[in-house]
Amino acid sequence: MTSELKVDKITPASGTNTQIGEAGDTTNLSAGTVTLPTSIITGATEKTTLVDADKFLIADSADSNAFKHVQKSNMPSGAFTSVGSSSGTTNVDNVYFDNVFTNTYTRYKIFMDYFLPTQANVELRYKFRNGGSAQGSGYTYTGNARRHGNQDLYSVQSGSATSYGVLTYNIQTGNGEHGVRAFFDVYRPGTVDSNATMHYIVGMGTYRSYNDDSTQAVTFEVASNNYNTTAFDGIMFYFNGGQVDSHKIRIYGVTT
User: Fold this and answer.
1) What range does the domain containing 169 cover?
2) How many domains does the chain have?
3) Torsion, CA 223, CA 227, CA 229, CA 230, rounded to 10
């Protein structure tokens, strides 16, 4: 049986609920515009941690915009989440970040847009931190640098545990210089387990050499680790002489 009902308004008899059709019926709203209140979304219970089985409603453009759902497990993965940043032009002894590393991420990305010393012929060093204090033992490191013309500038390593990690050597300073520009990956700083008891930092970047002032660009690569079985929550950067003239650093947790 087919019938048609044209009305301007349907008001529930009880004032609380209106039912259209019975269970199993199909209600077609294909014609015209259907207006829904925004509270359908804003008034729903919030879920703060997504899981793989969670679903999102989409219009499939490859199937005449048919309604379908996509599970979180099938969505593209990989993202950077900001966990800390610092910038400034006032001279300071060091730049440190506390409470940025947790077991939420096993890898972090550090972008050092610039890190400029007040004194020439210094090296960039780092230390992990935990509970507001620097870790002063257990570092080993290796690195090499190359200047323009494919000439080796240095290749060094620490043969025994030191109280700090070294990232660059012989940095030039002065008007018009831009200090160190680099990016670093930090692996598992906030986690310690049987498969990963060391904390690694590796990176690449560029700076101007003090040893050869005509060298406009030195590229470097470095790797360092700390073998203390401590889950670190922070990191600090500093020079072994003078102060930090100006800096800009951003830290992200990496979702893979």
Assistant:
1) 79-255
2) 1
3) -50
